[in-house]
Amino acid sequence: MLRTDWTLAEVHALYHQPVLQLVAQASEVHRQHQTTGEVQVCTLLSVKTGGCPEDCAYCPQAARYHTGVQAHKLLPDAEVIAAAQRAKDAGSTRFCMGAAWREVRDNRDFDRVLGMVTEVNNLGLEVCCTLGMLNEYQAERLKQAGLYAYNHNLDTSEDHYSNIITTRTYDDRLDTLEHVRKAGISVCSGGIIGLGETDEDRVKMLHTLATLPAHPESVPVNALVPVEGTPLAEQPRVSVWEMLRMIATARILMPGTMVRLSAGRQEMPVTEQALCFLAGANSIFSGEKLLTTPNPDFDADKEMFALLGLTPRAAFKNHVPEGATVLAAV
């Protein structure tokens, strides 16, 4: 039974178990609710990079930081569709397009993104976007265009949030998730660890996600990739044990959710990634970049899948939108 009434004390107790006990519990929950050994392969493309007016302390795309990221306008439609086709050919079944916007505006660029969504959907891929804040009308337009999922991360706990971002509120993020859910779009929302937060902040973020009216269908767990020029450039690398606690606790709290091992995977050897899959992670981003940060490429991930006996998850496994073509993973 899926619960959305977890207490903060319950989440705290789960998270602070001895790590091997926590991983064993999460692995058992995973076996009960998911197909073990099956991992969703996603690809993320930055369709509009840099120049963002927000002040997210971790982000190399914020215009106010000097990180060496070159801003560019929205990519040509043909370039985006070609990238989606390459991702599909390499084995991805979900294609996510990210734009460095604070919020979606009803203009020609948004109209172009809607067209991209339709074209990628026509390829038989689950199409996802992360475009910043949305209102109800914009979420409905994305749904009509064929959007399958929308990513909007909480990033951290509400208590720690103002230490990381001041240009939008925590409630702004929750409002966008509500608009996405109301439009019938799959919700993708997680966070980043390594932002200078405490364990209690991590527990509170997981509690917020697990007590939403419905669990997010996807929860990315990101380890900060420090970028020179950002306020968090000197933060130490997150350990695998911290990642395991987050992934395992998320798996227990949200058994039916795809828990994605996301940013920071480039620095993790296969042995560490294997532990994360054992703890309940069942989704990854594959391809050489996550927006602007390095990421393992398709060939490296195919070798890892073969070594660990992992199987790519088919697109639209649990839900096939009207007019979509089911794409089997390769």
UniProtKB/TrEMBL annotation:
GO molecular function, one term: iron ion binding
Keywords: 2Fe-2S, 4Fe-4S, Biotin biosynthesis, Iron, Iron-sulfur, Metal-binding, S-adenosyl-L-methionine, Transferase
Pathway entry: Cofactor biosynthesis; biotin biosynthesis; biotin from 7,8-diaminononanoate: step 2/2
Chain residues that bind [4Fe-4S] cluster: C52, C56, C59
CDD domains: Radical_SAM
Assigned EC number: 2.8.1.6
Catalytic activity of the protein: (4R,5S)-dethiobiotin + (sulfur carrier)-SH + 2 reduced [2Fe-2S]-[ferredoxin] + 2 S-adenosyl-L-methionine = (sulfur carrier)-H + biotin + 2 5'-deoxyadenosine + 2 L-methionine + 2 oxidized [2Fe-2S]-[ferredoxin]
Note describing how the cofactor binds: Binds 1 [4Fe-4S] cluster. The cluster is coordinated with 3 cysteines and an exchangeable S-adenosyl-L-methionine.
Record-annotated Radical SAM core domain positions: 35-265
Coiled-coil regions listed: none
GO biological process: biotin biosynthetic process
Pfam families attached to this UniProt entry: BATS (PF06968), Radical_SAM (PF04055)
Cofactor(s) of this protein: [4Fe-4S] cluster; [2Fe-2S] cluster
Broad EC category: transferase
Binding-site residues for [2Fe-2S] cluster, renumbered to this chain: C96, C128, C188, R260
Complex and partners: Homodimer.
Family stated for the protein in its record: Belongs to the radical SAM superfamily. Biotin synthase family.
Protein name stated in the entry: Biotin synthase
